[in-house]
Design brief:
The complex is a heterodimer.
Chain A (H helix, E strand, L loop, with lengths): L3 E12 L2 E12 L3 E5 L6 H8 L7 E6 L4 E4 L13 H6 L3 H4 L7 H13 L15 H13 L5 E5 L7 H14 L4 E5 L3 H4 L5 E6 L1 E5 L6 H6 L6 E3 L5 E4 L13
Parallel strand pairs in A: 3-7, 3-8, 5-6, 6-7
Antiparallel strand pairs in A: 1-2, 1-4, 8-9, 10-11
Chain B lengths: L1 H11 L3 H5 L2 H26 L3 H21 L3 H22 L4 H22 L7 H6 L7 H30 L1 H7 L1 H26 L4 H15 L3 H26 L3 H27 L5
Helix pairs in contact in B: 1-12, 3-8, 3-10, 3-11, 3-12, 4-5, 4-6, 4-10, 4-11, 5-6, 5-10, 8-9, 8-10, 9-10, 11-12, 11-13, 12-13
Classes of the chains: A alpha/beta, B mainly alpha.
């Protein structure tokens, strides 16, 4: 087990008087590859916002020993009408390191170009984000997340708006990146990510970290995680569709 | 000033030489130039970041400051500045805390500002002769002191751009990402730019007026956006467009004796239409001729 990068200890979080996460604890170590699943409204996004530091917990502790976190948001959160070039988007991933005062010079531009080269979108560096396809924008945003060489990479539904070809490449890339950094990935498609992640965290009001990528419908049910588990075969079909009542995770309210 | 002469010539060439001799006309021309720089950057920023409605709220809230300052006997511009900055910071805090719907907060403060302004103006003994010039603006009454304030704003904008161009761009593009990376830096940029937008609005009120100001902030940037999708070129181009519109507004204001603000807005909207027509023509004439 690698060095511990992140520890959430009994964290409660929400907005105003609406409580979304109750008593969540999660350790993230340097070699982790965690897939986060759970129903809509269960708190997956809130958990991510805690991890990237956008949201402060109402109670509990967030211990963050890594300074450098890369984040790939959902593509539709990006304002594609904004007048900014691809190169500048990637450079914005260095703001954590450069801060207010340091310049973005040749070294930074070359790091950004190298990233774009590896993602196969080098030729687009002068384009504005409005001229990109969804898949191209996703690659550019991945470059922004990686350009600072983070210790932890967080991805929010990376497979939502990409073509199948890029999805395969993306998972292969993530497997390689996982040798250098921890990865936390939110996904609605447990069936696909299960073969890539090392462990599964189930978020529905609270969080259960299942330290294995093999998970059964019965385990998911016991975690209070009513998600669809799609078995991939000739015809995709739902193994677990209906979830009655509330699991033990939210039984105490 | 060749461009100036040209713009004026189209309106009333007989008056051209004569009008340039007046001090107020020279002030108006300098104000146009300085305002164009302010509007080029601030307008592009609020359009790109979708802060147009918020800027409208700040503009109208500042009228409350004008009224109160009038009643208490202070400088109206100082009162407007205080109200504008406070409302900008208030909106910023509301956005960060998610205390209430931001657009509702803007709507309420918008009307409250106007109400306070009217309230205090009517409480003040005697007639308020310059009320119209605050509502609709008159670039021909710009004073040397106003010019000094505008010039300092241009210097401040220049300094900020030289020091923080990229962090400003990054925070504007994806605020959540910037906050996640460098919370302190992102907050500094957020608050600094809100104050900058508020003060720029206040300094523009004298020229185009509260009611029409939002058009001067949005139209040039949107016209520029027809031709470029990069922030820097968009800001430069919209500054140039604002300058043309303001000069034509000055000329029309002088020649036809209409409020400069109204003239500027009509010129800008006409330019926006012409921009679209120009693009359409370029697309069709640029295509290979059909046999």
């Amino acid at each position: 087990m690698g060095q511990r990068l992140f520890a959430l200890t009994d964290v409660w979080a929400g907005y105003g008087d609406r409580l979304v996460l109750r008593g969540v604890s999660l350790d993230i170590n340097a070699d982790d590859f965690i897939g986060i699943v759970g129903p809509n409204g269960g708190g997956k996004t809130t958990l991510l916002r805690l991890l990237i530091g956008e949201l402060k917990p109402l109670a509990g502790r967030v211990d963050r020993s890594c300074l450098n976190v890369g984040y790939l948001p959902q593509v539709q959160q990006i304002d594609r009408a904004f007048p900014i070039t691809v190169l500048d988007v990637v450079l914005s991933g260095l703001m954590g390191r450069q801060g207010l005062w340091r310049r973005y010079g040749k070294v930074q531009r070359e790091a950004a170009m190298e990233c774009l080269r590896q993602a196969g979108v080098e030729a687009l560096h002068g384009r504005s984000v409005g001229e990109l396809s969804g898949g191209q924008l996703q690659r550019v945003l991945l470059c922004r997340a990686l350009v600072s060489q983070p210790e932890l990479l967080i991805l929010d539904e990376p497979n939502t708006y990409v073509d199948n070809k890029f999805e395969g490449e993306l998972y292969e890339l993530l497997r390689q990146l996982n040798q250098r950094m921890a990865i936390v990935m939110v996904s609605h498609d447990l069936g696909t990510i299960a073969s890539y992640v090392k462990s599964i965290a189930c978020v529905n009001g609270t969080l259960h970290h299942h330290r294995s990528s093999h998970i059964t419908a019965a385990q998911l049910r016991s975690y209070g995680c009513p998600i669809q588990l799609i078995a991939h075969g000739e015809v995709p079909h739902t193994v677990l569709q209906h979830h009655g009542g509330c699991g033990k995770g939210c039984a105490n309210d | 000033m060749g461009a100036v002469g040209k713009a004026v010539l189209t309106i009333n060439h007989l008056c051209m030489i004569e009008m340039l001799h007046f001090q107020f006309m020279q002030n108006a021309l300098w104000a146009s130039l300085l305002l164009a720089v302010v509007v080029g950057f601030v307008g592009t920023y609020i359009v790109a970041r979708r802060l147009v409605f918020l800027s409208g709220g700040i503009t109208h809230a500042s009228f409350g400051g004008i009224g109160l300052a009038w009643y208490l006997g202070f400088s109206p511009i100082a009162g407007a500045a205080v109200f504008a900055v406070l409302s900008a910071l208030g909106f910023e805090a509301i956005t960060h805390r998610r205390a209430m719907r931001e657009d509702s907060a803007i709507g309420m403060l918008w009307a409250l500002g106007m109400a306070l302004g009217v309230f205090f103006v009517f409480l003040t003994p005697g007639y308020a002769p310059n009320l119209m010039s605050y509502l609709f603006g008159n670039i021909l009454t710009i004073s040397q002191a106003d010019l000094g304030l505008l010039l300092s704003m241009v210097v401040v904008i220049g300094l900020l751009l030289a020091l923080f161009y990229r962090p400003m761009l990054f925070v504007a593009f994806d605020s959540a990402y910037a906050h996640a990376q460098r919370r302190g830096a992102a907050l500094f940029i957020d608050y600094t730019l809100k104050v900058l937008v508020a003060l720029s609005i206040v300094l523009s009120i004298r020229s185009v007026g509260i009611i029409l100001l939002i058009s001067l902030l949005t139209a040039p940037a949107n016209i520029a956006n027809l031709f470029t999708r990069r922030f820097g070129p968009m800001a430069l181009l919209s500054g140039g467009i604002a300058l043309c519109a303001l000069l034509m507004g000055v000329a029309m204001s002088y020649g036809l004796n209409v409020p400069s603000g109204a003239a500027v807005v009509m010129v800008l909207v006409a330019m926006y239409g012409m921009g679209h027509v120009g693009l359409w023509l370029a697309r069709h004439l640029g295509a290979p001729a059909r046999g």
